[in-house]
Amino acid sequence: MNSTNRLELLQAWTAQHSALPQPTLQLLAGDASFRRYYRVTSTAQQSQVLVDAPPPESLEPFHSVALAYLQAGVLVPQVHASDTQLGAMLLDDLGDCLLLQTEAPAYDRYRQAIEALPNIMRVTETRLGALPPYDLELLKRENALFFEWLIGRHLGLELTAAEEKLWQGFTDLLNERSLQQPRVGVHRDYHSRNLMITADNQLAVIDFQDAVVGPITYDLVSLLRDCYVKWPADFVDGLVAYAHDMLREEALLDQSVSLAEFQEWFDWTGLQRHTKASGIFARLFHRDGKSGYLADIPQTVGYLTDIAGRYEILNPYYDWLEERIVPALNAKNAAAVEPACEP
């Protein structure tokens, strides 16, 4: 089906299922998936959001998690209509104001986002049953994205046997550290672009269809070591301490877990997330033609060197990043901006 026919189908479906009079569609900015979003406007000066997710994209995980989150007290867009065969869904329009697009101090906004986490963490099942586990197999698949798409496809590096052994040892440590943490409900992409501030100053959450049960520090890392926004160390450290105290008060974290132990979990979870993200950004370019994410790779790799440098056990991996990966990435970026030679 071509794009014109698809849009006509969506327009007709929206007119049938939206309560808004004479609805029209306006394309909004997309995300890293194959979904597209439209703002549905009308003569009534009201609006909704239309999600366009043609099969094999699935609407059900979003819908099920949305219902569970709402029941748990998490503010998310309400689903007004859904058609799984067409791949269309009508949601509340929460506006355009993302977490950092307000005049409120960033520290206050981030505390607000941290205070929303306990309700998310308590959601471990939906009407479909238990959320998928962030288990060893999923961790292995995610870690492999860095190896396949960043090292191999994007940088074109062939690793020696010793380098492959180093890489395997590093990922084994990532998996071990992830699986030893308390398991809670995890949004899995809880960052500044997926948190919105509503007109009445509430924090709303979007893009939660990949929710799992996983390590307690995962969403906190997504928030504070954001792939798109980097905060000073003292900003992050202060909010990690705030989260540690809050989670103990909420009985989601055992009183025996010290701040130092929690900080270490946070660091190792960040290493895993940014390993995955670096590979995903490369894949988005090479497989999906989304070049904008290439600009985010230096930050995610930078997080890897920053944190690996803090742990003696990771000294060999840190050296390898600095000697092999960072120079190759810098060379790739330099080549990308060089002007073409004139004939």
Find the structural class using helix and strand composition.
alpha+beta
> Gap between N and C termini, in Å?
42 Å
DSSP helix fraction? 40-55%
Strand order of the largest sheet: 1-2-3-5-4
Strand content: 5-15%
Q: What's the gyration radius in Å? A: 21 Å
State the name of the first-level CATH class of the largest domain: Alpha Beta
Q: What is the H/E string?
A: HEEEHEEHHEEHHEEEEHHHHH
Largest sheet: 5 strands, antiparallel
SS field, number of helical segments = 11
Low-confidence stretches: 338-343
Which word captures the global form? globular
Mean of all residue-level pLDDT scores: 94
Query: Judging by the overall fold, what is the CATH architecture of the largest domain?
Result: Alpha-Beta Complex
Question: What is the number of strand segments?
Answer: 11
The assembly state of the depicted protein chains is single chain
Number of domains: 2
CATH superfamily of the largest domain, by name, is Aminoglycoside phosphotransferase (APH), C-terminal lobe
CATH fold title of the largest domain? Aminoglycoside 3'-phosphotransferase, Chain: A, domain 2
Question: Which helices and strands, and how do they pair?
Answer:
Blueprint: H1 3-17, E1 24-27, E2 36-41, E3 47-52, H2 60-71, E4 79-83, E5 88-92, H3 106-115, H4 117-121, E6 125-126, E7 129-130, H5 136-154, H6 161-179, E8 183-186, E9 195-197, E10 203-205, E11 212-215, H7 218-224, H8 233-249, H9 259-286, H10 297-308, H11 315-337
Antiparallel strand pairs: 1-2, 2-3, 3-5, 4-5, 6-7, 8-11, 9-10
Helix pairs in contact: 3-8, 5-6, 5-9, 6-9, 7-9, 8-9, 9-10, 10-11
